Every structure is written in structure tokens, then in C-alpha cells.
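Thread: quick sanity check before group meeting

JM: Hey all, I'm pulling together slides for Thursday and realized we never actually wrote out the predicted structure for the chain we discussed last week. Dropping the sequence here so it's in one place. If anyone has concerns about the input, flag it before I start.
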Amino acid sequence: MRSYLIIFLVFMSWCCSSQGNEKQPRILIAYLSRTNNTKAIAEIIQQHAGGSLVAIELVKPYPEDYKTIVDQVAKEN
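JM (edit): ok, ran it. Output follows.
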């Protein structure tokens, strides 16, 4: 059985608030989810860290069949 690494991208940049020079983080959480499991984890991270949540969409989506996906990802890796 192959295991796959799910990567959450959390980008933080610092910007000045509108009320002075106080630095505040701006957070972007980007995720890729085929079965919505990763989406659920990304939403939990957003609840705790705040920020914007963005789904990464593939130009050519993975096929529905799991075995076909595994074979395709193996070739891509």
C-alpha cells in the first residue's frame, strides 16, 4: 500500500494595520482535496489560525477510479 503526503500550504506575510505600524499576519491556507478529507482539515486549521482558505483545482482532474489515480500519481512522481 502506498502512502501519500498531503501538503498544506500556509503562507504568512506581515502587513501594517490601518491604525498604525502594528504588524499583523496575513494567512493563506491552500489545499488539494479529492475526497474532501483534506478540505475538512484545512477548515480546522483556518478556524484556529484564521486567514483565507483556497482550494487548489487541477487543470486536468484526477480520474474517479482510485486504482487509476494511484497509477497516475506514481507516474507523476
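AS: nice. The radius of gyration is 17 Å. The chain has one domain: 9-76.
JM: adding both to the slides.
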